[in-house]
C-alpha cells in the first residue's frame, strides 16, 4: 500500500498509508483539510522509534521517542518538505568549522540563520492554496461548511442522494 506524505501549510508534515490519494485525504482529515496541503506519494519511507527507558508522561499512549529516519526519507524531507531549511543547513555546515573551536558569537550566528530558515519554512506555504471547490453546488457547499476535502464531500453528497432516492415512495405506493 502506498505511503503519502502531506506537507501542511504551517510546515508540519504527516505520513499516511492509503490505497489512493483520495483515501489519504480522508485519513488526513483527522488532522485538517489536506486539500490545501502538498500531498504526494513517497517512493520510500523509513522511520525508527526507540522504546523509552522510563515513562515521563503517564498520558503517553505509546512509550517511544523518534530516533530517526532512513537516509532516503531524510533526502525526501530535505528536498521536498524543507528545501529552505536544507539549503541553510548545508550552507552553515560548509562554513562551520569541523572542530569544536567555535566562539559563542559564531554559534549564535549559526543558530540565528537556522531559526530564520525555520520561520521561512513555516510561512512558505501559509495560505498559499485554497481548496478547489466542486462544480456541484451541494458538494461545494459541504466543502465550505465542513472544511472537508473534495473527495469526502463528493462521497457524502453521493450517499445523501442515494438515500434520498431509496426513501422515495415507489410508483405502486402512490394512490391513483
Outline the structure in words.
With 176 residues, the chain is α+β, with helices and mostly antiparallel strands. It has 6 helices and 5 strands, in the order E-E-H-E-E-E-H-H-H-H-H. The strands form 2 sheets. A 3-stranded antiparallel beta sheet has the order 2-1-3, with helices on one face. The chain has a two-stranded antiparallel ribbon with strand order 4-5. The chain is elongated and about 90 Å long. The mean pLDDT is 86.
Throw out a few tags for this protein:
176 residues, alpha+beta, 6 helices, 15% strand, elongated
Poorly predicted runs are: none
Order of helices and strands: EEHEEEHHHHH
Number of helices: 6
| Biggest sheet architecture | 3 strands, antiparallel
* Strands ordered across the widest β-sheet: 2-1-3
What is the terminal-to-terminal distance?
A: 55 Å
The helix fraction, in percent, is 40-55%
Proportion of strand residues: 5-15%
Radius of gyration: 24 Å
Please state the overall shape, judged from the principal axes of the Cα atoms: elongated
Count the E strands. Answer: 5
Q: What would you call the structural class?
A: alpha+beta
Mean pLDDT: 86
Amino acid at each position: 500500500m502506498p505511503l503519502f506524505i502531506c506537507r501542511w501549510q504551517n510546515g508540519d508534515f504527516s505520513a499516511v498509508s492509503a490505497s489512493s490519494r483520495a483515501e489519504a485525504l480522508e485519513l488526513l482529515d483527522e488532522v485538517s483539510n489536506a486539500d490545501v496541503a502538498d500531498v504526494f506519494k513517497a517512493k520510500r519511507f523509513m522511520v525508527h522509534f526507540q522504546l523509552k527507558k522510563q515513562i515521563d508522561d503517564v498520558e503517553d499512549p505509546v512509550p517511544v521517542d523518534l530516533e530517526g529516519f532512513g537516509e532516503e526519507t531524510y533526502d525526501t524531507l530535505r528536498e521536498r518538505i524543507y528545501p529552505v531549511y536544507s539549503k541553510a543547513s548545508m550552507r552553515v555546515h560548509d562554513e562551520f568549522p569541523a572542530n569544536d573551536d567555535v566562539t559563542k558569537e559564531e554559534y549564535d550566528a549559526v543558530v540565528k540563520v537556522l531559526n530564520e530558515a525555520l520561520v521561512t519554512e513555516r510561512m512558505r506555504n501559509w495560505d498559499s492554496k485554497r481548496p478547489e471547490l466542486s462544480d456541484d453546488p451541494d458538494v461545494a457547499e459541504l466543502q465550505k461548511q465542513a472544511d472537508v476535502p473534495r473527495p469526502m464531500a463528493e462521497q457524502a453528497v453521493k450517499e445523501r442522494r442515494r438515500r434520498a432516492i431509496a426513501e422515495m415512495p415507489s410508483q405502486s405506493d402512490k394512490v391513483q
